[in-house]
């Protein structure tokens, strides 16, 4: 046998070896199917594509075997038959290995598809998860229940306001910083996103007249940078009571009763002089810490008191702007932050958690 006659047979041998080497990772599909039965469907499909690729490379037009076939006519006549047989048997063994693997893989894929689509009718149905109210809603409704039981109506205001309702009618002077764009959001038409629920005092008195007793919970907006205690959108509740002969004693009694019902009968309230344009006199109110009962803890920052909101006697200018005679009628108003109260009650470190709507967080508070 000459050197040139050896070469074609070696080529075929090399092609077989190359195939066998690459085929090794598919061998599991060629024999024992059970061991691969746990293969996920997506992986089985990827293997199927890889196998088709392998077939193309080793049996396709550009394969080493196809090149060897072309040599059959060119080898010496006495070697031709043997060489032809070698090529054929090599091809046959490659085809057989591929076909078996392809078939088993196909069967595996079908099994996986059927398993995925099958339904066990004996399994109990899946219960749709029950939702519940958002913690802010829970606190808001508790506040509403208390005031409704005290004879207050619940008013619903607007979130977008004209200057008149957001500022002017509330006796906020023309050059007050709150009117500036640094503090308040404005629409392109120059309307303000209300920065406090006090706006509802005006709407409510315009619509219902006096006497009136109302609370108005709702969202307000301020240009604050978000941090653990601030969010540009938050919730307040406003209260207003106007009638003949209303005094600061009514204000103190009402706020105190509200806080007792909210945080327990032993809750103590205190008022500190303050300033708001729409009340005169004005006061901020605090209540004794519901957690430590006044002895000092983390929640009340060791002061024993929790600051809650602003209040005061409705300014005569506010009443006058609505055509109510301040010589006949007087009233009190107050405002407090619902989310702040909510964060305290649930001991949250960051009020922004209340607005992210992450169910894993919210589902803790029923
Ligand atoms: N609107 C005030 C604020 O957002 C809170 C407030 C203070 C409301 C005094 C009132 C009030 O009704 O009388 O800070």
Short description:
Helix content is 43%, strand content 17%. The protein is α+β, with helices and mostly antiparallel strands.
What topology does this entry show?
Elements: H1 3-23, H2 27-30, H3 41-59, H4 64-71, H5 77-117, H6 135-149, E1 153-154, E2 160-161, H7 163-166, E3 192-193, H8 199-208, E4 212-221, E5 233-243, H9 248-263, E6 269-276, E7 279-288, E8 305-314, H10 316-321, E9 330-337, H11 338-345, H12 359-362
Parallel strand pairs: 1-4
Antiparallel strand pairs: 2-3, 4-5, 5-9, 6-7, 7-8, 8-9
Tally of DSSP β-strands? 9
User: How much is the average pLDDT?
Assistant: 92
Which percent bin holds the helix content? 40-55%
End-to-end CA span: 91 Å
Strand order within the widest beta sheet: 1-4-5-9-8-7-6
SSE class: alpha+beta
Give the low-pLDDT segments: 1-5
Strand content: 15-25%
**Outline type:** rod-shaped
Order of helices and strands: HHHHHHEEHEHEEHEEEHEHH
Count of alpha/pi helices: 12
How many strands, which pairing sense, and closed or not: the largest β-sheet?
7 strands, mixed
């Amino acid at each position: 046998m000459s050197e040139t006659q050896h070469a074609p047979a070696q080529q075929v041998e090399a092609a077989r070896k190359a195939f066998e080497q690459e085929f090794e990772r598919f061998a599991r599909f060629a024999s024992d199917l059970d061991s691969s039965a746990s293969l996920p469907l997506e992986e089985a499909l990827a293997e199927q594509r890889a196998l088709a690729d392998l077939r193309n490379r080793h049996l396709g037009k550009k394969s080493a075997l196809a090149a060897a076939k072309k040599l059959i006519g060119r080898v010496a006549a006495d070697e031709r038959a043997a060489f032809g047989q070698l090529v054929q048997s090599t091809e046959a063994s490659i085809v057989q290995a591929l076909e078996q693997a392809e078939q088993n893989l196909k069967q595996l894929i079908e099994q996986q598809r059927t398993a995925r689509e099958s339904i066990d009718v004996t399994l109990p149905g899946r219960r749709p998860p029950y939702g519940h109210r958002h913690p802010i809603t829970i606190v808001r409704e508790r506040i509403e229940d208390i005031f409704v039981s005290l004879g207050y109506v619940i008013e619903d205001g607007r979130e977008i306001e004209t200057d008149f309702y957001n500022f002017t009618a509330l006796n906020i002077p023309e050059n007050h910083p709150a009117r500036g764009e640094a503090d308040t959001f404005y629409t392109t038409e120059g309307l303000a996103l209300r920065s406090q629920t006090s706006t509802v005092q005006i709407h409510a008195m315009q619509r219902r007249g006096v006497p009136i007793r109302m609370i108005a919970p709702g969202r307000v907006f301020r240009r604050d940078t978000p941090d653990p205690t601030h969010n540009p959108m938050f919730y307040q509740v406003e209260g207003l009571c106007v009638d003949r002969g209303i005094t600061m004693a009514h204000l103190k009694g009402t706020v105190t009763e509200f806080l007792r019902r909210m945080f327990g009968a032993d809750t103590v309230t205190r008022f500190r002089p303050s300033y708001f344009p729409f009340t005169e006199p004005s006061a901020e109110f605090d209540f004794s810490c519901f957690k430590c009962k006044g002895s000092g803890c983390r929640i009340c920052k060791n002061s024993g008191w929790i600051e809650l909101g602003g209040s005061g006697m409705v300014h005569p200018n506010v009443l006058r702007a609505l055509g109510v005679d301040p010589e006949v009628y007087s009233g009190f108003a107050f405002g407090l932050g619902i989310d702040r109260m909510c964060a305290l009650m649930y001991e949250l470190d960051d009020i922004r958690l209340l607005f992210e709507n992450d169910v894993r967080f919210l589902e803790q508070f029923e």
